[in-house]
Design a protein that fits this description.
3-stranded antiparallel sheet; single chain; 13 helices; Aspartate Aminotransferase, domain 2; 375 residues; alpha/beta; Aspartate Aminotransferase, domain 1
């Protein structure tokens, strides 16, 4: 079976992990700081807080933003459910705003119509690796007195209008799950252009602990003293996984180039299949492609999915609209409220895209797609 996604691990990664596991620090050690510093090399120098997953990154970022009961967070529904769920877990009301027809990313016009005086965060998702119109969303968020968050789980290494992801929003979250553009097995990070937000994020990922005596309420308690001023969780990413992340970052440019080559090959091979809508290529972005999200007629998608799976091609669908999940349906969210995202879902099929895919693999997949529609 050719999977739709898989990590790329080589001997340098194995060596990095082996070195870390024999270090005196298995967690909260120098490899964590090194990985965070290495990440800053891809975010325009903006510092990072490493956490245990992309979901933890979202939860931490929303907490740093002060999201809570009585507030609203605007989210596109064409995303993994965590983008919405982590805001809801903090007590906020999630407001789903529709996506752009071409890109599948949050539509600034829909976001503008969704914000209210209660909006705390406008959360954009870099669908498949390509950002939304971040300048327009910045204006929407600023006009509502809200923070702009970029869920960049798909897009580390992407630049938009010459600026790297990580420098475009007040808060940016990354995921380093095994299927992503680089991996720490499980892991994620929060990046911020605001020192205050970053400090809040760093505290939240470590139980909310305050160790600086200058900031403590009872600093004379003793040299061992630490306090919690606001509740947090243990979202610390261990040194072993951070060492893997630093090693992977040294090859991120290669990963990005190979994914671009494969995506372009799909484009060329499917150009003569009119039933397939290929991904839009934003003129103002240099995209680190995470997915190859083709779209096909709604009445053909499931049959094509099953046809490819039967032929040993591990396709996927990204994603069930977040407001369709029963947990949100039970809260009163209605199907039909975001028609563009819902149409995307009914048409979308992700073809295999990862560094280990060969040119022959792409050609075979495209032959199978072409044969399906010409049968």
């Amino acid at each position: 079976m050719l999977p739709y996604a898989r990590q790329s691990v080589d001997e340098s990664d194995v060596a990095a992990v082996a070195a870390a596991i024999t270090d005196p620090f298995l967690t909260t050690g120098p490899a964590v700081t090194r990985f965070e510093d290495d990440l800053a090399g891809w975010t325009g120098g903006h510092p990072a807080v490493a956490v245990t997953s992309g979901t933890a990154a979202l939860h931490t970022a929303y907490a740093a933003a002060g999201v809570g009961p009585g507030q609203e967070v605007v989210v596109p529904p064409l995303t993994f459910v965590a983008t919405a769920a982590t805001a809801a877990l903090l007590g906020a009301r999630v407001v789903f705003a529709d996506v752009d027809e071409a890109s599948g990313c949050l539509d600034p016009g829909a976001a503008a119509a969704a914000v209210t005086s209660r909006t705390t965060v406008v959360a954009s998702v870099d669908y498949a690796g390509a950002p939304a119109d971040m300048d327009a969303l910045r204006e929407v968020a600023a006009g509502a007195g809200a923070l702009l968050l970029e869920d960049a789980a798909h897009s580390i290494g992407t630049t938009w209008r010459g600026r790297p992801v990580g420098s475009l929003a007040d808060l940016t979250t990354f995921s380093f799950f095994a299927t992503k553009n680089l991996t720490t097995a499980e892991g994620g990070a929060v990046v911020s252009t605001s020192p205050e937000l970053l400090t809040r994020a760093a505290r939240f990922r470590n139980h909310g602990l305050v160790r600086d005596p200058a900031e403590q309420r009872e600093p004379d308690e003793g040299p061992w003293h630490q306090e919690v001023h606001a509740l947090g969780l243990n979202y610390r990413l261990p040194d072993v996984l951070c060492a893997l992340g630093s090693s992977q970052l040294r090859r991120l440019s290669q990963f990005k180039q190979r994914r671009a080559e494969l995506s372009a090959r799909y484009d060329a091979a499917l150009a003569d299949v009119p039933e397939v809508t290929r991904p839009a290529r934003p003129a103002d972005a240099d995209v680190a492609w995470h997915l190859y999200p083709a779209r096909v007629p709604e009445d053909a998608r499931r049959a094509l999915f099953e046809h490819l799976r039967a032929a040993g091609v591990g396709v996927q669908v990204n994603y069930l609209p977040a407001h369709w999940h029963p947990v949100f349906a039970d809260l009163g969210y209605q199907r039909g409220s975001c028609p563009v995202a819902e149409r995307w879902y009914r048409q979308e099929i992700s073809l295999p895209l990862f560094v280990g895919v060969t040119d022959d693999d792409v050609d075979r997949v495209c032959d199978l797609v072409r044969g399906f529609f010409r049968a």
